[in-house]
Every structure is written in structure tokens, then in C-alpha cells.
């Protein structure tokens, strides 16, 4: 039996492939540009540094991707990271709890705030933007209250190992994000849960009618986003050797930018974890390259904004090709 | 058939919404392997009845019962309905565009893989392949649904329904956006389902289709059952009479129109690459010029090019003999061209705004003084048009969204009439509108033509094209392939021109509009 795929459909499929490819092309272009512009960029120490430094944003972008795939968003990730880091550090330093118990509690805090986001969205019927904006404020506020606005340090080597340790010559944060990305990729592409995440974003009512447990799946995606934000907070705290109350401010924007650059639709149902990772690397490479070129930090933000707009514009253009 | 145990009996079903009785003691019976047509004007209660069957609404507590295979059942949710073997295919397709066909068919029922929580993709696609083969559908189950044409998406829905072991499939206006060929394919599928003992409830506004495909017809009017009869003993006129409760003599109207030979719109060699090629025609003052053709023949694109929504790469447009340049809709409007688009909800109306606001939208500039809208004048214009076009609405403050399709269409037309257009382009003006309201739209078009407006009407319904137009143009693959006098042309003539073949094609074997 022959398969009907008209010229139009074939062109659309090509455009869709092209669209998925754009993000890699952008990353490659940046890499080539900075390699030519600075001889330090391609040095292995610099490249490893990019992969280590961006671990928290990559991990947050994975969670953000899930929240966005179900048609939501999670603005609280930066604050949740700070809170999880602060509580885990505080429990060790102030209360003398064992390192791993404290870190586990930090993760549970992230998960709990994520689930709270889910409850507000699913049962409270709040728009995700508003619900997570509120928890963003709450989590940051709790961090400041808990730390009394001062850094907490002195967690010990077992903790800081997660930020600066090396296993088989690979930095630990890189191992962590590679594992998280692999797990998330498998979860989204191989499991019922993953299929249901895409289905909900593509048509919530349709999914519900098909018997998908829409509420549970949405609740879990927000939970996962919170949990990963917590994990990102632990890595950040470990790398900085201290829990800073104002750490990770604005990271939610980087995570959203990474996801959007990576082709995750703001309307849900479309996108992949791998895309988001590449998106996060684009943001990271851009920042690193500009540092090497001695671009001052204030204009850097302007350039980052412009790159985001350009990348999304290219994306919208190829999307139009695809739908023509 | 009548001796067989009915598959479904809905007995004395009533449904009351606050302030409205939507259904009064309605009975509906479906036998195994039967195609039952359900007809009625908009608001007659068809969709309420079907939603009760699908478990979206519960019937009133004091109403009758639903028997499934002779057993009384209560259907609380679409899931309940699905478990019984009832599947619903909606006008708005219930497929997820970014998922592939196989995933759509088995969503929520994925075959489990070896590791808990995972999916056995190979089995999923193999099973999907089987379901598609059963319907003879040449579709790759790994194709994303958004890449499929509408008709194939509907087939995928049918495949999904069959994979659920549906015994009864409700199809709500499945043909409204299909081409004749696709309708034929759908009907073949329906016959195949019937042969497998599956029953279908078929809802359509196209009465011709009912006579082609259905075994019996159930007619509703104002929430009440008018009757159920075998198709064999019925005529279209009889069904219309049952639906509207009165005789609708000749719903097409041609009166008071003068046979003017003065061209108001002349199009010469109009080309928009990839859409229309070298189109030339004249539209006369007071004339209704029909444009027939298959979906995708370039008719809408022609209208869009004239109206400035699409670039014209070659050709001339003249209005009252004067060449005009139209690159944007605003220029077309300034020249006195109005365009009533095909998708009135998305392109013709501001659904959340009021009837009055919608009507005056195009003349706001004239109603504005020092940047402020003169409310009283706007209201009086809106009232005037509501009265003139007999738009049925409780007030001009009513949101357009709450009006029936026919009245919404009148609001769109009213909006253009406020500009006193020379030319009015109507794209599928009666799509999804019931018979009674259709007659009113035709009446309105006739009046406008009598007042000298030149009307270009795009329509896929051949009886409409032949009944309403003074002349008929036919398009095929972006070109004009024929011009006919509707008083002498037959539907076959037009279909031949529309399919680009001289004769003997199979596209007109009783499909839509034939």
C-alpha cells in the first residue's frame, strides 16, 4: 500500500526538520564565531567551564521544558533553587544534620513547591504564570527569612564535591546534568507519562476524553520542575561553597530562553529536552564568549536579548514555511 | 430490520437548561448496522441529544431512559459512552495535530512495553497499521496528524473509533469541509462500517447526502421529535417541511433584478503565483456571479487577491471602468469592495463583542469625532441594520457569539452594508447555516443585487450556485475552466469543468451538493 504524502506534506516535513535543526546551526555559528574572535575560547579548560557553569540552567531548562510542554510555565525555578540551597546548607551548618539528609530535604523542598505550583494550577485553576509568579516571590522571601539575608557557608567537602568534584576527569555537575537530561529524554519519549505530557499540551480536552489523567500528569510535571530547580540550587550552592540568599535571581528567564531557543512552544505540546539543552548552551556560550571578548556585563544583557529575539524570529519564520 | 433488537433506544428524553427546555420527550432508536440521519435546524436540539448520548449532559431526572442492547444504562461521562461502544466524531476534530496518527489512535490506551510505564511502540504502530488497513487508508501511522488533509484526519478519527470497538459512531457534520471526492470516500467507509454491523448516527445540513447514505431519518424541531421515517419514502421537500414546520417554496429567489450589462468589477489576467493564474471576468451591476469549483481550486484565493489579502503579480482590476490599485484590504474597502469570508467566526466577526459593535466596526472612522466614538449615532446605525436585515437578537448589546450561524452571517453582511459597497464578495455564505436561515440569506442577496450591488458568490454547494447565480464561473487548479448559464447548465456540466475533465469522471456520483 502506498503512503499518501503529497508534495505539500513533504515540504512541510522538510521545513519541520529544518526547524529542529536551526538551534544546532545557531549554536555552531556562535562556536565558530567565538573561536575565530578569541584564541582562548576553544581551549579545553574554557569549554569544560561552559559545561560546568551552565549545569544549573540546563537542569532548570529541562524542568521548564516539561512545564511548558503541558502548556504552562514555571517562573519560580530561580527562587526555588535559592531556597533549596539555603535550607540544605542551613541544616548542615546550623543544625548539624548529615550532609545527604540535608541535601535530600533540600530536594524535597523543591519538589514540594513544584507540587504546590501544580495544585494551584490544576485545582486552583490559576493561570500558570500567576501561580508560579506568586511562589517565586514566596520562595525568595522564605530564603531571605531563613538566611536572614546572609550567606551560609561551611557545609564541608561532601557537599562542595557536587559543585567542584571530578569523577574520571569529568566534573560532577556535568555528570549530573547529563544523567538528568538522559532520564528526562527517556521519560518524555519512551513512557506513557511522556506521551501524555505532549498530548495534554497539544489538546487538553482531547487528552482528557481519551482517558489521560490530565490533572495528575500536570501536577507531576510541575513537581518535576520544582524538584529539578531544587537540584540546580544544590549544585549552585556546592559550586559557590556557600548558600547565597540572592543566588539564581533571573535564572527562570534564562531557563525559559533556553527552552524557547530550543524550539519548545510557549503554547505547549511541541519541543524536546535536547532542544532546550542546546538552547541553554547557546545562552551559555554567548555569555562566555562575550566575557572572553571583554564585553562589559551591562551590554551583555542587551546582546542576549537581541539574540533571543533573532533566534525566535528565525524559528517563527521556519514555522511559517512548515505550515504553508 | 425492524424485528432486530435495537442497539440504542433513547426514550422520552427531556433536558432543561436554566430558562430553556432544550429537549421535550424525544425518542430516538438505532438498529445494528443502520445509518440513521439526524436532522433539524440549528437549535432544534440535535447536539443536546447527542451530548446526552455521549455523557456530557445528564437528561432531566424526570425524563425517560436510555436502553443499550435492551438494557437500561446511565451515561455519566464520555468515558462511560466509550465503554459501552459509543464514539463521537465532532465537527472540531478531536485529534492532536502535533502527535502522529498511531499515538492519536491509541492515546490513553498505549500497549505497555517491557519496562513498567513504557510503551511498546512497535506494537502500537503495528496495531494502528491494522486499523488503518481495515479502512483501506493509505496513511503512514507515523505521520503527524497536522500533515494530513482534513478528510484523512476524519478517517483517522473513524479508525480511532473502531479501535475502541465502537458499535455506534456519531458523526456530527463530517462532510462540512470535505470535497466531493472525499465525501464519496467517507460514504464508502460508512457503508463498510455498516456491513460490519456498526451503526452510525449521521448529522448533516446537506439533505442530499442523507438520501444518498442514510437508512432512516429522525427529524427534530424546537427540541421536539417531529418524526422518524425510512429514507425510501421521503423527498427532500418533505424533510424540509418537517424541519421548518412550514412549506418553503423555492428557497432561491430571483426577483426585482434588472438585467444590467454595466460592468462594475472587471478583472483581467489576474495572477497571484501559486494560487491563481490569468483570471479574467466581468461582474455586472446587480448581478450575482457564482464561482464553483472543488476545494483548493483557488476560489478563495481569487477573492483574497481582489480584496488585497494576497499579492497580485499580474493583471488589472477595474471598478466602474477605472483601473484601481489594491494592495491592502483597506484600499479594497475604500474602493467599495466588501468581503464576507469563509470562516466567519475567525475572520468575519469579533465574537466577544456585541452585535452593535460588530456592525459599526467598518464605519468607525466616520462615527468618530475628536477621537471619540459617537455612541448614539453608532447605536442608531446598528439598530437600523438589525431591523433591515431582520437579525434576530435580543438587543444590539448581545454578544455575537451567542447568535445562531445564520444571524451571525447577517451581522457580517450588515457590517459591509454600512459602507454601501459596489461589490460584495461572499465566500461560502451559507456554510453551516440551516435551511430556514439559508433562504433568508438568499433573499438578502437578491435584495442587494436588486439595489445594484455586484455580488461574487463562492460556493461549493452546486444547487446553491445554480439556484442563486445569474452566471456561474468554474475554477480548476487556479484557472477559470468554464462559464455557464445556470438556467441551462446541469450539475454534471459544472463538475466536469471543476474537475478539469471533459466528462466521465467519478467525482460526481452523488457526493456533496449533487
Helix and strand arrangement:
The complex is a heterodimer of chains A (324) and B (514).
Chain A: H1 7-37, H2 44-53, H3 55-69, H4 77-93, H5 99-122, H6 128-147, E1 152-153, H7 157-164, E2 166-167, E3 170-171, H8 172-190, H9 192-202, H10 204-209, H11 214-240, E4 242-243, H12 251-261, H13 273-292, H14 297-323
Antiparallel strand pairs in A: 1-4, 2-3
Chain B: E1 8-17, E2 20-30, E3 35-39, H1 46-53, E4 65-68, E5 71-73, H2 78-84, E6 86-89, H3 101-106, H4 121-134, H5 150-163, E7 168-172, H6 180-195, E8 199-203, H7 207-213, E9 216-221, E10 224-230, H8 236-244, E11 263-272, E12 276-284, E13 288-293, H9 299-306, E14 314-319, E15 322-324, H10 329-334, E16 337-340, H11 344-348, H12 355-360, E17 368-369, E18 372-373, H13 375-388, H14 405-417, E19 423-427, H15 435-450, E20 454-458, H16 462-468, E21 471-476, E22 479-484, H17 491-499
Parallel strand pairs in B: 3-8, 3-9, 6-7, 7-8, 13-20, 13-21, 16-19, 19-20
Antiparallel strand pairs in B: 1-2, 1-4, 4-5, 9-10, 11-12, 11-14, 14-15, 17-18, 21-22
Q: What would a concise description of this structure say?
A:
The complex is a heterodimer of chains A (324) and B (514). Chain A is an all-alpha fold. Chain A is 76% helix and 2% strand.
Number of helices of chain B: 17
Termini separation of chain B? 29 Å
CATH topology of the largest domain in chain B: Rossmann fold
Radius of gyration of chain A: 20 Å
The assigned structural class of chain A equals mainly alpha
Which class of chain A in CATH terms? Mainly Alpha
Amino acid at each position: 500500500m502506498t503512503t499518501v504524502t503529497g508534495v505539500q506534506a513533504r515540504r512541510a516535513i522538510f521545513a519541520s526538520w529544518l526547524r529542529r535543526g536551526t538551534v544546532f546551526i545557531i549554536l555552531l555559528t556562535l562556536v565558530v564565531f567565538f573561536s575565530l574572535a578569541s584564541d582562548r575560547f576553544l581551549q579545553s579548560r574554557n569549554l569544560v567551564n561552559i559545561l560546568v557553569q551552565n549545569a544549573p540552567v540546563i537542569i532548570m531548562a529541562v524542568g521548564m521544558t516539561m512545564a511548558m510542554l503541558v502548556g504552562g510555565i514555571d517562573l519560580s525555578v530561580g527562587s526555588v533553587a535559592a531556597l533549596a540551597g539555603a535550607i540544605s546548607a542551613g541544616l548542615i551548618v546550623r543544625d548539624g544534620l548529615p550532609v545527604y539528609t540535608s541535601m535530600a530535604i533540600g530536594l524535597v523542598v523543591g519538589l514540594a513547591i513544584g507540587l504546590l505550583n501544580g495544585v494551584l494550577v490544576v485545582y486552583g485553576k490559576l493561570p500558570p504564570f500567576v501561580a508560579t509568579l506568586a511562589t517565586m516571590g514566596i520562595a525568595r522571601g522564605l530564603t531571605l527569612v531563613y538566611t536572614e539575608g546572609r550567606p551560609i557557608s561551611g557545609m564541608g567537602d561532601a557537599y562542595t564535591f557536587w559543585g567542584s568534584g571530578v569523577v574520571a576527569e569529568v566534573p560532577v555537575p556535568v555528570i549530573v546534568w547529563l544523567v538528568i537530561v538522559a532520564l528526562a529524554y527517556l521519560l518524555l519519549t519512551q513512557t506513557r507519562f511522556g506521551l501524555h505530557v505532549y498530548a495534554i499540551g497539544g489538546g487538553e480536552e482531547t487528552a482528557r476524553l481519551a482517558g489521560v489523567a490530565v490533572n495528575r500528569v500536570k501536577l507531576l510535571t510541575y513537581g518535576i520542575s520544582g524538584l529539578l530547580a531544587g537540584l540546580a540550587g544544590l549544585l549552585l550552592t556546592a559550586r559557590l561553597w556557600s548558600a547565597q540568599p540572592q543566588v539564581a535571581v533571573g535564572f527562570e528567564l534564562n531557563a525559559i530562553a533556553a527552552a524557547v531557543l530550543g524550539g519548545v512552544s510557549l503554547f505547549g505540546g511541541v519541543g524536546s529536552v535536547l532542544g532546550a539543552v542546546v538552547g541553554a548552551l547557546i545562552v551559555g556560550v554567548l555569555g562566555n564568549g562575550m566575557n572572553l571578548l571583554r564585553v562589559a556585563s551591562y551590554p551583555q544583557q542587551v546582546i542576549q536579548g537581541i539574540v533571543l529575539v533573532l533566534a525566535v524570529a528565525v524559528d517563527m519564520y521556519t514555522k511559517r514555511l512548515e505550515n504553508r | 430490520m425492524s424485528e432486530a433488537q435495537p442497539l440504542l433506544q433513547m426514550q422520552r428524553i427531556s433536558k432543561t437548561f436554566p430558562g430553556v427546555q432544550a429537549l421535550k420527550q424525544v425518542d430516538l432508536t438505532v438498529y445494528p448496522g443502520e445509518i440513521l440521519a439526524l436532522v433539524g435546524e440549528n437549535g432544534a436540539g440535535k447536539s443536546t441529544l447527542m451530548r446526552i448520548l455521549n455523557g456530557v449532559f445528564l437528561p432531566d431526572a424526570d425524563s425517560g431512559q436510555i436502553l443499550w442492547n435492551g438494557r437500561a444504562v446511565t451515561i455519566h461521562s464520555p468515558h462511560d459512552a466509550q465503554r459501552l461502544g459509543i464514539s463521537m466524531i465532532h465537527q472540531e476534530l478531536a485529534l492532536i495535530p502535533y502527535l502522529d496518527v498511531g499515538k492519536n489512535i491509541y492515546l490513553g490506551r498505549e500497549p505497555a512495553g517491557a519496562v513498567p510505564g513504557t510503551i511498546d511502540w512497535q506494537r502500537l504502530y503495528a496495531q494502528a497499521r491494522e486499523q488503518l488497513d481495515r479502512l483501506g487508508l493509505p496513511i503512514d501511522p507515523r505521520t503527524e496528524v497536522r500533515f494530513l488533509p482534513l478528510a484523512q484526519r476524519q478517517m483517522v478519527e473513524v479508525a480511532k473509533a473502531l479501535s475502541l470497538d465502537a458499535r455506534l459512531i456519531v458523526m456530527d457534520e463530517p462532510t462540512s469541509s470535505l470535497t466531493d471526492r472525499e465525501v464519496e470516500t467517507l460514504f464508502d467507509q460508512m457503508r463498510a462500517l455498516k456491513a460490519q454491523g456498526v451503526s452510525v448516527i449521521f448529522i448533516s445540513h446537506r439533505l442530499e447526502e442523507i438520501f444518498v447514505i442514510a437508512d432512516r431519518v429522525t427529524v427534530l424541531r424546537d427540541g421536539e421529535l417531529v418524526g422518524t421515517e425510512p429514507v425510501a419514502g421521503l423527498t427532500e421537500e418533505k424533510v424540509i417541511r418537517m424541519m421548518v414546520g412550514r412549506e418553503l417554496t423555492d428557497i432561491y429567489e430571483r426577483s426585482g433584478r434588472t438585467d444590467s450589462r454595466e460592468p462594475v468589477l472587471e478583472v483581467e489576467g489576474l495572477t497571484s503565483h501559486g494560487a491563481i493564474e490569468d483570471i479574467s471576468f466581468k461582474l455586472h451591476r446587480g448581478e450575482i456571479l457564482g464561482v464553483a469549483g472543488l476545494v483548493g481550486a483557488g476560489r478563495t484565493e481569487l477573492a483574497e487577491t481582489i480584496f488585497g489579502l494576497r499579492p497580485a503579480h499580474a493583471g488589472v482590476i477595474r471598478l466602474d471602468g477605472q483601473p484601481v490599485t489594491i494592495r491592502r484590504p483597506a484600499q479594497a474597502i475604500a474602493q467599495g469592495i466588501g468581503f464576507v469570508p469563509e470562516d466567519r467566526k475567525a475572520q468575519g466577526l469579533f465574537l466577544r463583542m456585541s452585535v452593535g459593535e460588530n456592525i459599526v466596526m467598518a464605519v468607525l472612522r466616520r462615527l468618530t469625532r475628536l477621537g471619540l466614538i459617537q455612541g448614539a449615532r453608532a447605536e442608531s446605525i446598528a439598530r437600523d441594520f438589525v431591523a433591515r436585515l431582520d437579525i434576530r437578537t435580543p438587543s444590539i448589546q448581545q454578544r455575537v457569539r451567542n447568535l445562531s450561524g445564520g444571524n451571525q452571517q447577517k451581522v457580517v453582511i450588515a457590517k459591509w452594508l454600512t459602507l454601501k459597497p459596489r461589490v460584495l464578495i461572499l465566500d461560502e455564505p451559507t456554510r453551516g447555516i440551516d435551511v430556514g436561515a439559508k433562504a433568508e440569506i438568499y433573499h438578502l442577496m437578491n435584495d442587494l443585487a436588486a439595489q445594484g450591488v455586484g455580488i461574487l458568490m463562492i460556493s461549493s454547494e452546486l444547487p446553491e450556485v445554480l439556484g442563486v447565480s445569474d452566471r456561474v464561473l468554474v475554477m480548476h487548479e487556479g484557472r477559470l475552466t468554464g462559464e455557464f448559464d445556470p438556467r441551462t447548465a446541469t450539475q454534471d456540466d459544472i463538475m466536469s469543468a471543476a474537475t478539469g475533465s471533459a466528462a466521465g469522471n467519478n467525482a460526481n456520483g452523488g457526493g456533496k451538493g449533487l
